[in-house]
Structure formats: C-alpha cells, structure tokens
Specification:
single chain; 3 strands
Length: 96
C-alpha cells in the first residue's frame, strides 16, 4: 500500500528548488552547462563568455560569422531554452 505523500525524485527536487527559491538560478546554470548541445559544438567552441542577467542571455563570440548565424537563430534558441526550462527563462539574447 502506497503512502499518500510519495513523490518521485524529480518532483521532490523541483519542490525543494521552488521552496528555496533557487529554481531560476538552477535552470540558468543548466543553460550555460548545456550551451554546446543548444547551439552545436562549433559555435560553443567560439563562445568566449556567456552569462544570464535579468532574463537576458549575454554571449561574447570570437567569430563574426558564427555571431551573425546566432543573430539569425536567436528566436529559435530562446524558444528551445524556454521549452527545456518549462518556463520563460530567457526573453532576449544580446551578442557582445
């Protein structure tokens, strides 16, 4: 017979992150850690700096060609990030 308060590990972790109000920071760290999966290895290798501030993703690239490619793909990248986070984590991408 199961208990009424049984939860999966995922549910328990999500609840803990919400209670301690660190879910947003956890999700932001996940975006930075998975940057290569989001944009591909060539673009990730040319990324010099990446950080999130006030729901804006700041990216510094050392290749103007890849920078222009990211400019064209920025809406797709924002959608992909927000879909994975299951919330509106990023509203804008700023290329430095």
């Amino acid at each position: 017979m199961g208990r009424t308060n049984d939860k999966t590990v995922k549910e328990a972790l999500n609840q803990m992150l919400k209670v301690y109000k660190i879910k947003r920071k956890f999700d932001e760290t996940g975006v930075i850690a998975n940057w290569a999966e989001l944009v591909g290895k060539p673009a990730a290798n040319r990324t010099k700096e990446i950080f999130i501030l006030n729901r804006k993703l700041f990216i510094r690239m050392d290749s103007s060609v890849i920078k222009n490619e990211l400019l064209r793909m920025r809406l797709e990248i924002i959608e992909k990030i927000n879909e994975q986070a299951e919330t509106e984590l990023i509203t804008e991408i700023i290329l430095l």
